[in-house]
Write a structure and sequence with these properties.
This protein has about 100 residues and is an all-alpha fold. Helices cover about 60% and strands about 0% of the residues. The chain folds into two domains: about 55 residues, no CATH class; about 30 residues.
C-alpha cells in the first residue's frame, strides 16, 4: 500500500465537541501531574514518592544484608539434609 520511503500521515481534525472533551482530559492529566509532588496527610505530609522511599529505607534498615552465595549454600544444604532425612541416601547427588 505504501512504499518504504513514504510515511503515512494521519490528519485528525476533531470537531468542536471532541476538542472540548480532549482539552478536559488533557487538563485533568496536567492537574494530576502537578499534584503528584504535593504533600498529603495520608502520607505523613510527604509526597507519595518521598513516602515510598522512606518506607523502603525503614524496611531495609531492619533486614540484614545478605551474601547471595552464602544464602544459596544454605538452601542447597537444607535440601540435601531433608532428602537424606527422607530417604536415608545421597544417590541423586551422583547424577
Amino acid at each position: 500500500m505504501f512504499d518504504n520511503n513514504e510515511k503515512q500521515q494521519v490528519n485528525y481534525q476533531p470537531n468542536d465537541d471532541e476538542a472540548e472533551v480532549l482539552k478536559g482530559i488533557n487538563q485533568k492529566f496536567e492537574d494530576s501531574r502537578s499534584q503528584r509532588e504535593l504533600p498529603y496527610r495520608f502520607f505523613e505530609n510527604r509526597s507519595f514518592e518521598q513516602f515510598i522511599q522512606s518506607n523502603k529505607d525503614n524496611f531495609n534498615s531492619y533486614t540484614k544484608p545478605r551474601n547471595s552465595l552464602s544464602s544459596l549454600i544454605r538452601i542447597i544444604l537444607t535440601v540435601i539434609r531433608n532428602h537424606v532425612i527422607r530417604t536415608g541416601r545421597l544417590e541423586y547427588l551422583s547424577r
